[in-house]
TrEMBL record:
Keywords: DNA-binding, Endoplasmic reticulum, Homeobox, Lipid biosynthesis, Lipid metabolism, Membrane, Nucleus, Transferase, Transmembrane, Transmembrane helix. The chain crosses the membrane at residues 150-167, 247-266, 291-310, 371-391, 411-435. Gene3D superfamilies: Homeodomain-like. Pathway: Sphingolipid metabolism; Lipid metabolism; sphingolipid metabolism. The gene is CERS4. It catalyses: sphinganine + octadecanoyl-CoA = N-(octadecanoyl)-sphinganine + CoA + H(+). This is Ceramide synthase 4.
Length: 502
C-alpha cells in the first residue's frame, strides 16, 4: 500500500511552506520499504488534504495521511466526518489568498457537506430498523456491497460508448449492407434564409398564421412553404442505416446480458422462489458475478443516457429519459442497500424481451416482413408475460408483502417500491402501444410502422415538382416510395390542380 514519507531535508521558504509540502512516495511491501523509485511530489497543501485520507497515527502530521484514489468521494460516502478535520482546524485558504476568508468559507462549505452527508446516509433511510451501515463492514472473509464500488460504472460507461461506436462502424454497418438495408434518397430543401431561420429558431412545424406570414415574407404560396418545411424535416430524420446500427448494438448487448444473467442465476435459490431474496438479509455476501453484472448493466444505461441526444429520437423520448433515470437510480439504491437478489430478477425480466424487440427492428429495417412479423408476435407475448404477469406477481409482490414478513417498513422500502411502480407504469404504457400494433396487424394483415418511430413524411409527385426556388426533381428509380403510379390508376390530379372525386 502506498504511503507518504517525511519531507526532504531542504527547508522551503515561508511563502512556500504556507502553500506547498514536499512528499515522498515509496512502494511498501509488508513491513519494509522496497524498490528504488522515489517520486517527489510538490503540490499545494489543500490538494493533499482533498486527495489523502486521514488516519489516527502517531508522529508528525504528514504521517497521518495516506494516498487513496477518490478519497474525497469515498470519505463522504463512508465517514460521518468526511475529511476527518476538526472544527478547530479550519480548512486553509488557497495559495495566494491574502486572508483567511477563503479558508473560513471552505470550512463552512465542508461543514455543510458533512451535515448533508450525515443526513443522506442515515441508517434508517437505507436499512430496516435494527440494522445499520456497521453491519455492512467488510472483512477478509466476507465482502458486502459498498457504495463506492459503483464508481466503477463511470469508466465502464465511457468504455461502452467507445465500444458501441466501434461496433456500429465495423459490425453494424457491414451487416446492414449485407442484409440489404437501403437509405431513402431525399430531396434537399432549396436554400431560403428566412425559412431556415424560422425552422432552426422557432418551430419545425409552423401554424397556419405563421405559414401566411412566411409566405408573404418569401413571396411564396402557402403550399410552397408547407412543402419546404416537409422536405426540410425529412432532411434531419435519421437514415435506415443509422437506425439499424443502433438496433444491432442494443440487440448484441441485451442478448449477451440476458443469457449471461441466466447463466448466473439459474442455480440460485431465489431464481425460482423470489421470497428467498430476503433470507438472512442484509447479511448476504457480494458475489463477483453479481457485481460485474450490475456494473456492466449500470454502465450500459449510463452510456444510453449520455448518447440519448445523439440517438434516433422517437415519440416516447420523454418516457425513455424517465426509464433510464429510474433504472439508474433503482440499480444504485438496490446495490447500496444490498437488494442485489431482487435487483437481478428485475434485470433478467427486462432483458428477456428487449433483445427480441431490437431483432424485430433490425428485420423491419431490412424489409424482411415475414420474419419481422413472426418476431414481433413472439416479442409481444414475451413482453406481456414478463412485464404484466411475472413482474407484478413475482417482483412487486415479494417487495411489497413478503419482505415485510420479517422487517418493518422504512424509508428505503417506500422509495424502492415507488421506483418499481414507476417502471410498471411505463410497462403498461408500452404494452398499450404493442397491443395497438398487434390489433393493426391482425386487422390490416401486415405489420404497421413502429408506434414510437419518427415516420418520414412522403412528398407526392405534384409537391416534388412544385418545390420553391426550383428544387431538383427526384428520379423515379432512386426510391421505391417515390415510384410512379401505374397507368391503370390513371392521373390523380386534374389539369386545374384539383383532386379527382373518389
Amino acid at each position: 500500500m502506498a504511503g507518504l514519507a517525511s519531507p526532504p531535508l531542504e527547508t522551503p521558504t515561508r511563502n512556500q511552506s504556507q502553500c506547498h509540502r514536499w512528499f515522498q512516495k515509496a512502494d511498501h511491501r509488508g513491513e519494509g520499504v522496497t524498490g528504488s523509485r522515489i517520486r517527489m511530489l510538490r503540490l499545494p497543501d489543500w490538494v493533499w488534504k482533498m486527495t489523502c485520507r486521514s488516519a489516527p497515527r502517531a508522529g508528525l502530521w504528514w504521517a497521518s495521511y495516506s494516498l487513496s484514489p477518490l478519497a474525497l468521494l469515498s470519505d463522504f460516502w463512508l465517514r460521518p466526518d468526511p475529511l476527518g478535520y476538526s472544527r478547530t482546524r479550519p480548512f486553509p485558504g488557497l495559495p495566494g489568498s491574502r486572508s483567511g476568508q477563503m479558508g473560513s468559507a471552505s470550512s463552512r462549505a465542508l461543514s455543510m457537506l458533512a451535515l448533508l452527508n450525515k443526513w443522506f446516509w442515515k441508517d434508517e433511510y437505507w436499512f430496516p430498523p435494527g440494522y445499520s451501515w456497521a453491519d455492512m463492514k467488510e472483512t477478509d472473509e466476507i465482502k458486502y456491497p459498498q457504495p463506492q464500488d459503483l464508481l466503477m460504472a463511470l469508466p465502464v460507461a465511457m468504455v461502452m460508448v467507445a465500444v458501441r461506436y466501434t461496433f456500429e462502424r465495423f459490425v453494424g454497418l457491414p451487416l446492414s449492407r449485407l442484409l440489404g438495408v437501403r437509405n431513402q434518397v431525399r430531396l434537399k430543401a432549396p436554400p431560403n434564409p428566412v425559412l431556415e431561420a424560422f425552422f432552426l429558431l422557432q418551430s419545425k412545424t409552423p401554424k397556419e398564421d405563421q405559414l401566411l406570414s412566411l409566405s408573404r415574407q418569401c413571396d411564396l404560396s402557402v403550399r410552397q412553404v408547407e412543402r419546404w418545411f416537409r422536405c426540410r424535416r425529412n432532411q434531419d430524420r435519421p437514415c435506415m442505416t443509422k437506425k439499424f446500427c443502433e438496433a444491432s448494438w442494443r440487440f448484441a448487448f441485451y442478448l449477451c446480458s440476458f443469457f449471461g444473467g441466466l447463466a448466473v442465476l439459474h442455480d440460485k435459490p431465489w431464481f425460482v422462489e423470489p421470497k428467498l431474496c430476503w433470507d438472512n438479509y442484509p447479511y448476504q455476501p457480494l458475489m463477483p458475478s453479481l457485481y460485474w453484472w450490475y456494473i456492466l448493466e449500470l454502465g450500459f444505461y449510463v452510456s444510453l443516457l449520455l448518447t440519448l441526444p445523439l440517438d434516433v429520437k422517437r415519440k416516447d423520448f420523454k418516457e425513455q429519459i424517465i426509464h433510464h433515470f429510474v433504472t439508474i437510480t433503482l440499480m444504485t439504491f438496490s446495490y447500496c442497500a444490498n437488494f442485489l437478489r431482487i435487483g437481478t430478477l428485475v434485470l433478467l425480466l427486462h432483458d428477456v424481451s428487449d433483445y427480441l424487440l431490437e431483432a424485430c427492428k433490425m428485420f423491419n429495417y431490412t424489409q424482411w416482413r415475414k420474419v419481422c412479423d413472426i418476431l414481433f408476435i413472439i416479442f409481444a407475448l414475451v413482453f406481456i408475460v414478463s412485464r404484466l404477469v411475472l413482474y407484478p406477481t413475482k417482483v412487486l409482490y415479494t417487495t411489497y408483502y413478503e419482505s415485510m414478513v420479517t422487517f418493518k417498513p422504512f424509508l428505503g422500502y417506500y422509495f424502492f417500491n415507488g421506483l418499481l411502480m414507476v417502471l410498471q407504469v411505463l410497462h403498461i404504457f408500452w404494452s398499450y402501444l404493442i397491443l395497438r400494433m398487434v390489433y393493426k396487424f391482425t386487422i390490416a394483415g401486415q405489420m404497421e410502422k413502429d408506434e414510437r418511430s419518427d415516420v418520414e413524411e412522403v412528398l407526392t409527385d405534384d409537391e416534388r415538382e412544385h418545390l420553391p426556388n426550383g428544387a431538383d426533381h427526384l428520379s423515379s428509380t432512386s426510391n421505391n416510395n417515390y415510384a410512379p403510379k401505374s397507368r391503370a390508376e390513371g392521373p390523380r390530379h386534374l389539369a386545374n390542380g384539383h383532386l379527382k372525386a373518389t
